[in-house]
Amino acid sequence: MVAPIRKPFRPSLENLPSPASGRGAGGEGGLEDIVQTDDFKSICSHPRPFPKGEGTIFLIITTAIFLAAGAHVGLAQQQPIVEKPDPPDLTHPSSSGDRSTISILDDKGRPVMRYRHADVRMKPYVDRLFTPGGVQVLRDSAPDHPHHHGLMFALSVDGVDFWGEVGRGYGKQVQREIGDVKTASQNGVRRVHFAQTLDWVGPESDKPLLIERRKIGEYRAEDLGATLIEWNSILQAPPGKESIKLTGHHYFGLGMRFVESMDRDGRFFNSDDRQGEVVRGDERLTPAKWCAYTAKADGRPVTIALFDHPDNLRHPARMFTMSKPFAYLSATMNEWKEPVVVKAGEPLELRYAAALWDGEVDKAAVERLYRRWLKL
Predict the structure, then answer these.
(1) Taking the model in full, what pTM does it have?
(2) Cα separation of 168 and 146, whole Å?
(3) Which of 127, 154, 293, 346 could form a disulfide with 150 if both were Cys (CB 3.0 to 4.6 A apart)?
(4) d(Cα 326, Cα 342) in Å, to the nearest integer?
(5) Per-residue pLDDT for 12 more than 60?
(6) Who contacts 70 (Cβ-Cβ below 8 Å, separation ≥6)?
(7) pLDDT at 52 over 90
(8) Beta-bridge mates of residue 305
(9) What are phi and psi of 14, to 5 degrees?
(10) Rounded to an integer, what distance in angstroms lies between the CA atom of residue 219 and that of residue 371?
(11) Nearest-angstrom CA–CA distance, 318 and 48
(12) Beta carbons of 322 and 349 less than 8 angstroms apart
């Protein structure tokens, strides 16, 4: 049998694919159609000598085809990449709890903090807070000051004291709503948080003197090197009141009482290396964007810092510190000297963070984490 004579393959330049569309100049016959033709397949599968001059023409045309294809792929690669959130780590639950507490857990299922939101005497608070290595640093209701509850937030509102508890005449933070714990991960950072609504009520009436929307959460990422807890409070006047006045003692604000073993041989330091104003004894108020305390908790050195956000009223905060007869740290607005007036329809938002490290860290390490927090 005589083999059929095949005609030389001569694709037209008019049918080369367009880089932008991947199709031919006429809208059809693009790269996909050319490479699927019998002639093109035959040439690729059964190479043979070209008539004089046609080999050069074929080489030029096929080179143009693949250059066009490369341009098409290059354009596709230049399309903007839509950043998608990282999926949360579901190996372990992010939280646990019961009818009165919420615990945030790390990626290994270990406790990071516990928040007591119900069944409390006068105010919700964080009663347990851990370093990455598992050292618990908070003391709750010490015999010398039973109203000191771990990490807590309290002020005086229109003359009613919400800091103290023992005796009569103190206000109470009443829970109206507690939200579900939410978890999200993005760009390598996991955030676990929950929200709570509180009515601050006086001793003589159930009508709120102040309404607070509180949000507490934890950030976790490999580069943080510390436990990082955020505390947000939005304070607003209740319906029917034109304004409220916030005052209090020099230590009122977001305060932290440490375990008893940390009351000995500790050291405070702050962002600006300031000594601050002496109020009484060794109690000081120091303007600083952050203040840290390092001591040994049951024999293990730890460092703890409070961060004040630049958007907060009267930033930098007046950081209250004392070391005798016990150690205490709080972030205040200096409201003992300058009362804060919150008008109706103009809520006051406060954003703080607490950071915990294993070991004694230096000022540079605290500053790095503070700057990292501001970007979260």
Answers:
(1) 0.76
(2) 15
(3) 127
(4) 33
(5) no
(6) none
(7) no
(8) 292, 355
(9) -70, -20
(10) 14
(11) 87
(12) no
